[in-house]
Amino acid sequence: MPDAAPAAASAARPDAAPAAASAARPDAVADTAAPEAEGPAPGEAAGSARPRRSAATRAAILAAARDRFAADGYERATIRAIARDADIDPSMVMRYYGNKAGLFAAASEIDVHAPDLTHFPREEAGARLVRHFVERWECDETLTAMMRVGVTNEAGAERMRGVFAEQIKPVLAAVCPVPEEAPTRAALIASQILGMALCRYVLHLPPAVGLSHDEVIAWLAPTVQRYLTAEHP
Fold this sequence. Notes:
The chain is mostly helical. It has helices at 5-11, 17-24, 26-33, 55-76, 79-86, 90-97, 100-107, 125-139, 141-150, 154-173, 182-202, 206-210, 213-229. It has 13 helices and no strands.
């Protein structure tokens, strides 16, 4: 019919093309593929449009850093090598962490979530503390990685010492019968817990690896209990 022609003509008008053309524009594809927006990295303006990397990328950088620091030591490890291991441009590592010292600080950040031993019967303190650390070592690769760093270079060792001084000593002081001995007793407890961790998770000594959780606790808990609560050696 004659009045149907205008509708068809309208559908075929050139001015209908821009919508289709817009959908096919290269920059439209780029918008679709762009990463999610993130808040600015340190030093960037609040309105920065620079794309972000995901939390997974940050995790990859930190994992690569721990492995590289463990393998090469702090002094020999480089931002370029860590970036290559993480499959990311070195500039992104610098963007997030500033320099090697900042990266090391982030990679070695550990919260052991030490239990408050005052919430348990006094005679269970040793077993509770050992069980907590066995479970933490089993589920947190960061602790194992930092143990490896700690035995290969002084920066890592210093960080591990700091973790125990900051996080373990206060826990011990709450139950220690001789408060002024807390630092010494913390060192003795570390000799048991870190010693087992080194043998079981880093050196993989077969007898240590072969122990069940309950066996590790049964062997270590009495000694740790004595360090925690005994009046005298």
